[in-house]
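Intended use. Records like the one below are meant for learning the mapping from a protein sequence to its folded structure. Do not use them to infer anything beyond what is encoded.
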Amino acid sequence: MKVFREISSEISKGCVATVGVFDGVHSGHQYIISQLKRMAESIGGEELVITMDPHPAAFFGRKIGLLSTMDEKLSLFERFGVRNLLVLNFNSEIAGLSGTRFIDDILVSRLSVSRLLLGYNNSIGHKENGVSEISSAKIPVSRLDRFHIDYSDDISSSSIRGLLANGDIVLANKYLGYEYTLSGSVVHGFGIGRKIGFPTANILPQCADKVVPCNGSYIVVALVDGKSFPAMLNIGCRPTFDGQDRTVELHILDYDSDIYGQNVKIVFKERLRGEQKFADVTELTDQLCKDRTSVEEYFAKNPLSLTKIAEL
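Structure written out for the chain above:
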């Protein structure tokens, strides 16, 4: 995949393009990419995906949880076969363009794009102008029908954020078309887990703006040094110990190596339960033992989960 950080003469002329933020590069985005590639092949050309950095919401000062960092987006685009990717700096100039001016001034005049393909709810240009006027653009503009897996689906970046906020990992993963991940470095915690037989690695998320699923316990896979391990994850404020700060604590099954300072990727499988306050440490430990058993049973039934993830 060729990645361009600015408009360049090296970008192939006559590309079929699509434009969007593509946060998460979810299954709806993947559908756009597949149709874009098909359209490009039909005219003997190449596809060009144009995305934005930073996220427009962040540019306008709105707080938004991201489904993917830029590095993750690049990796996903490459996984789904994109040959040409342009990452535009979303600035005041871009933000102020109408849909037609964006197409005519950037896509046509500067990039020599031959046609534009949009998703069913893509918006291009300043919202006061919106997509209604792009019919006057200098190239053909096609819009895809709504993509869905089931007819009740609302597959969008915002709906997936909502699912993660509610802990619905299984449906979020279905809409993403892959399993949600969170990466971070291992930092020192309170050491309580080791004292009760469940040593944990405290994870400091690599990207402070990325969505952390809601509080609770999860079945996950931990990727450490290129190897994958079954693990359980707790997100929350440690209410049993009257904690105040939200933490992400990872317990890797049958693993006792020192990984402080290392980067770990967490792959979410299922939510086990919500956050709970236990009466004492014994009650907490009993529940952790049940959680561990649930994790072991999950991977006994799904052994390929580990080998497939190791390839990511």
